[in-house]
Fold:
Amino acid sequence: MYDEIFRIPLLVQGPRRLVEPASVGEFARSMELMPTFVDWAGVEVPDGLDGRSLAPLARGERVEDWPDAVYCEHHGEVWGYQSQRMVRTRRWKYAYDPHSTDELYDLENDPGELVNRATDPACGDVLREMQARLLGWNDATGDIFQWRWVRWNLPEPLSPQDAAREATMTR
Structure:
């Protein structure tokens, strides 16, 4: 999955009395917009939303538990053919397609994503961590990409318990 699909600048003009112009480098998703606008309107953000308000980041506050990864999904043709899932941290990007080769890129040393490190033994721990993150997200979001043949077709299958445990790991 190419960065151009999901790495899109987000420009928002907040209320001038609440927000000074700023550039924020944290990962943001479109689902953060509604809670942000609700927050800026002075209304309590309801529980149970998938997104979180960007207002603290826009005010320049550091949010300790802000996600350090972003996830992307592509729903392919019939029966999941060409469907993909991806997880990206600042340094690593892992893409999974059940009908193709896994992809793991070191974005720090290979920003052009020219060298797939998924089969590099030196990156085995990183690969397993990224797989665990992806499966953890898959479970947490109720992703429809949950068919048994997809979930257990990973190069080194993880049990749901291992995936949940390892999904909380950080690099």
About this structure: The first helix runs from residue 3 to 6.
